[in-house]
Design goal:
The structure is a homodimer.
Chain A: H1 12-30, E1 35-36, H2 38-44, H3 49-57, E2 69-70, H4 71-82, E3 88-93, H5 97-104, H6 107-110, E4 113-120, E5 129-130, E6 133-137, H7 141-148, E7 152-155, H8 162-171, E8 176-179, E9 192-195, H9 198-213
Parallel strand pairs in A: 3-4, 3-7, 4-6, 7-8, 8-9
Antiparallel strand pairs in A: 1-2, 5-6
Chain lengths: ~210, ~210
């Protein structure tokens, strides 16, 4: 869907499925299992065993057809492959309702995303801290980022300034944008773009609910 | 990707693009425009004019090839079609870091999602309010939901209890589950399932950043 696909050897749909496998084998571990086969994963997750084996062939893990994968090894390999064990530095633009909510979500840090600062222009918010994360004025971004060196910029501004703020972040050194706005921003080819539109997901859900009622 | 696709006449990828168009034409409106053509939308968004015209053919709007669409009419039709103007009632299970963050995000209400209650088992949280939304004990869900009549259940519990809590919500009358956990839950055919895994999106972003560095 996004233009950056060709960078990765692993296809995006496969990459998106890996966290499901990780999540499931962690559960098996808790239940006392030591080994897991792709057939076993397939029974619990809506993906065929063949597809699972293929997806896992992209990561460097040794599975034996009969015995299956060692859960500890597969967990470590997946977490490493998915980048959850390396800390990635981020800043967030637009400390409104959703922005402040994301700053409050300490769960992201467990998955390798550390937000060092929020940026906004609202004097009521600038200078405050949310979940111990300072909020600076957007004008200070380029200067602050020389120190912070953030790779990732989280975009939670109003949609009508989404493009402008994205350009501003990129000018300040951001390499990847996590776009939560419903606005379809454009970025240069070397910039990684990830769209997460909660509102688009809501729309899909609402639409299906209506169809079910008919 | 999800099993519920066949319910909808509009294909999911098209449905997911509609909020982008809505967001863009709202911006044009702010800038003083009254009409918009699919070509004009295509210039700003990474979608061809043909695709846009096709996507918009699913919604009941009259576009004239030369003149384009009336922005006010298209806005109203899209908002109605996407369900953003009707309020959908929801509850949230798992008032941890992400759950509390979603309760705090008043923005969802602007898109038609009203969260009436949170549910958890932690005595430190049960009985509290977040953003004026009460948090009840999970055991009280079936009883509370007779009154609340929530259609949508937001799932933000730890992944190892995601399936169990999903089953519990469905037993209590929930018709759609918005799953934020990285766990791949299974639901009966008549239940709408929307997966929004922030962690899967993080993984895609991290993976592309690494590939870019190589």
């Amino acid at each position: 869907m996004d233009r950056d696909n060709y960078h990765s050897r692993i296809p995006e749909p496969a990459l998106r499925r890996l966290p499901w496998y990780l999540s499931y084998i962690k559960l098996l571990k808790k239940q006392g299992y030591g080994k897991v086969s792709s057939t076993q994963i397939a029974q619990k997750i809506n993906v065929s065993a063949t597809q699972i084996a293929k997806d896992l062939s992209y990561v460097n893990v040794s599975g034996k057809t009969r015995v299956g994968y060692d859960i500890d090894e597969l967990t470590a390999v997946l977490e490493d492959f998915l980048g959850f064990k390396r800390m990635h530095s981020a800043v967030l633009f637009g400390v409104g309702s959703l922005g402040a909510a994301l700053l409050s979500d300490s769960g992201l840090e467990q998955y390798g995303l550390k937000i060092y600062a929020g940026f906004d222009v609202d004097p009521a918010i600038v200078g405050q801290k949310i979940n111990k994360i300072p909020v600076f004025h957007s004008d200070d971004f380029a200067l602050k980022n020389k120190k912070l060196n953030a790779q990732i910029g989280i975009l939670t501004v109003p949609p009508d300034i989404a493009q402008e703020v994205a350009d501003f972040m990129i000018a300040g050194g951001i390499e990847a944008i996590w776009n939560f706005t419903p606005f379809r921003i454009r970025v240069p080819e070397h910039i990684v773009l990830q769209n997460t539109s909660l509102y688009a997901h809501l729309a899909v859900m609402f639409n299906r609910l209506v169809k079910d009622d008919e």
